[in-house]
Amino acid sequence: MRKARALCLLSGGLDSQLAxxxxxxxGVETHGxxxxxxxxxxxxxxxxxxxxxxxxxxxxxxxxxxxxxxHPPHGFGxxxxxxxDCHARMLKRAGQxxxxxxxxxxxxxxxxxxxxxxQNRASLETVAHESGYGELVLRPLSAxxxxxxxxxxxxxxDRQKLLDLRGRSRKPQMELAxxxxxxxxxxxxxxxxxxxxxxxxxxxxxxxHDADPDPVEIALLRIGRHFRLGExxxxxxxxxxxxxxxxEQKAGNxxxxxVESAPGPSAVICGEVSDDVIRKAAEACVxxxxxxxxxxxxxxxxxxxxxxxxxxxxxKDTVLKPI
Length: 323
Ligand code: SF4
Fold this sequence. Notes:
Elements: E1 5-9, H1 14-25, E2 29-36, H2 43-52, E3 56-60, H3 62-70, H4 83-95, H5 98-101, E4 105-107, H6 121-131, E5 137-138, H7 150-153, H8 171-180, H9 197-209, H10 215-219, E6 225-230, E7 233-237, H11 241-250, E8 255-259, E9 266-271, H12 275-287, E10 297-303, E11 306-312
Helix pairs in contact: 1-8, 4-6
The structure holds iron/sulfur cluster.
């Protein structure tokens, strides 16, 4: 048996780390690959690769995930997470690197039936098939319950030394973690903003009104209070000093507002701006400031390099609906 080489999707979670350990135990040389986008990062993957002592390939996934968010062939999960298509695309992207990196096959930490929708037998088959690299996708943690793959058939890995994990219990994984000396691994859920209901609601609103949003507007979805002021206009208000600073940094040429006569949020208007929009935005700023209610407050507005002060009362809750 010659020494095989595997490229393993390494999110950094426990399952993906275990997949690496199981393969390495039988002498497979393993590299990791991790993807970055505005909705998930490579931090956990980088940490895991460093602990495991394996090379890690970091790939930008922004174009892929934006395309899938607009048209997910297999739809979304419970939030804006197109998991089946996202996973298939990641495997496709990884598969395209196999030749260049002189790797023999792909591996993932997926466990059969661990997640009811995205890791049942049909979903695993769909993901592998749609990636275009189906025969080369090995799931070391559940391989003995799944059809034989090419690396197993060709003797690059010993199927008998692969595992037969199944289901939602994390106990077997935790025992394996002890066996392989893995500690301080992230919790299974988390790490992808597309599974967060609040974030998903704001993202859906953004994509409904703008199919190709500016990266700054996507970045702003992580913070603040969001209000839609018109079909092509929204307002983002900071909720604390840190968010106010982010808004001020990211505003660029967009209209930036700040209540002058009392402590209050910084706010940025994204999209089309008119005098009416600025007035509504200023009223919203006053509503979330410490200025006395029902009285006029001074709001500083910076727009296109010029500055002005307007005086408005606070917006009423009935007209101010957060996204
Ligand atoms: S949780 Fe996020 S990163 Fe993971 S497959 Fe789903 S959409 Fe992609």
